[in-house]
Amino acid sequence: MKTSKTPLSLVLALALAMMLGPFSLDTYLPAFPAIGADLGAPASAVALTVSVYIFTLAASQLLGGALSDRHGRRTVLLAGLGIYAAASLGIAAARTLPVMIGGRALQALGGGWVLVSVPALVRDRVSGREAAKLFSLLGLIMVLAPGVAPSVGSALLEAGSWRWIFLALAGYAALLAPLTQRFIFRDLPRREPETGPVPSLGRRYLDVFAERAALPYIVWQTAVFSVLMIFVTNASAIYQGHFRQDERMFSLLFAANVAAMVVFNLANRALLARYPSRAILRAATLVLGAGMLWLVTAALARWPLAAFVPGMMLTLGSMGAISPNNQACYLEHFPRNGGTAAALLGATQFSVAGAMSAFSTRLPETLTAVVLAMAVCAAVAVGVMIFSDE
Fold first, then answer.
1. CA–CA separation, 179 vs 173, rounded Å?
2. CB burial class (10 A; 0-12, 13-18, 19+) of residue 34?
3. For helices 215-236 and 277-300, what crossing angle results, to 10°?
4. Helix, strand, or coil here: 127?
5. Predicted confidence band of residue 123 (pLDDT cuts 50, 70, 90)
């Protein structure tokens, strides 16, 4: 039986579990020079640990989601935390870059199992507007987490060495284990165990693909996430390269986009009291399209920074309303295979968006090229909105 009210303790526990992902990506970024110097590797080689993590994270969700449907969320999430903590300790002890890269892959395996469990747990508890509200609140915390993570990493780096960062991540995962036991799994509605022959992983994903009405949401989410990843990859080139802003202004301009996401996220929570998730999702996607049109015009007409920034805030801010509603609408189709469905969504958006991000680095180093790449992805999202049957 699904609950209609979500305790704050549960929300915070789920959010802390989800934050493991952005903290794993962003906390150690300030330590790249120190890691390279210690391990005898250039910064570009250290950056490879980010790519390894992202793509392994995508693949690990495919396995973790299906396993959680068969063996339960608790088993997979706690196993993921154990793997993650052990890998983090291994990275902290690494003496060579290949060992660190291997540790990051193992860390992503565990992190992916944790990450994919959270939306499935939301689907196990609530549905409809309540699910959208919970995803929206989790999304708000997820927006704020990447802004905090580098500061935490800088503080740990100043207090000790880069190895302290991974010791802290191991400790974080270890603390999450009793926290999830206490606040997430204590009163989780019992799922009926699966009976009959055990479906293979392939069979589970074929069952998800059979829900044709749900598939547009995968494309929708992936296209929108690709817009964000292309921007993040090229943010420095846009603001510091094209518009000639210093590091301080870059931080402020980047923070403006985060602030816009927060505003849209809060507005989304208020609108959910009156409108269905699907209606808000469509409206927010139209805002994304309008913001993208603004950016294309600004790039082609060579508008100044002051005229460019509002378009970027509108484009990226809309994602604060798109993602939670898209997840809620998508998972509504999967009352029993929520873990597998969440895995497919997460793996697709991370792998495709990661590939689009990498592709964008091969484009001409101009603002127009980056904006047009973002526009193509946004056009896919708008197209799915227009032609979707639901």
1. 10
2. middle
3. 40
4. coil
5. confident
